[in-house]
Amino acid sequence: MAQLAPGAFPPPPPFYKLYAVGGPNPPPPPPLLGEFRVFGRDFSVDDPVVTPLQAGKLFQTAADGSIDFKGELSHLQGELMCLFLELLRTLVQNPSGYAPQLTMINQVFSNMQHLINALRPHQARANLEYALQLQIQAHKDALARIAQQVAAADTTLAQFAAALGAGSSRPDRPDQLALAAGLPLPRQSRPGGRP
Q1: Which of 1, 8, 103, 168 could share a disulfide with 40, CB 3.0–4.6 Å?
Q2: d(CA 68, CA 119)
Q3: What per-residue confidence (pLDDT) applies to 30?
Q4: Relative orientation angle of helices 99-165 and 174-181, to the nearest 10 degrees
């Protein structure tokens, strides 16, 4: 196999061509070990899920350490809009003095990214909980359908038992049994062989 040239935005690995919709698919490649490169940055599988915040912290945490993600992201988004308007005003009035506003915008973006990354485990847990609830509901529905079929079979068997036990003479022919159970009669064949 030809070696792919490294780049900031490399093409997808060639093994994606092995997978087809509806066909037999090979097993997925083994998980990565050690370090790997994505979009020009080096990563390690041992890196924490939520990386520590490099810039100054601009969001509030509660006394127990919890974070109101929705409120804090909304606050940072409003702050980002104000900083962006301030940056535009600075670019109009003093184009060479944009660096402080750009630094603050980068800091707000870093805080927003940190909050979103901290929210990902909660999001994954919620998605898993929803998928499990769907599976539980599907199993409950299947059990309810099975219970309905069992009840219908019990009713039919009870009708047959009542038909067999009713009357002094036991019905020997299928049409007598069907009449006793209240079922439609089977079609009689004529002597010519046609029904």
Answers
A1: 8
A2: 10
A3: 79
A4: 120
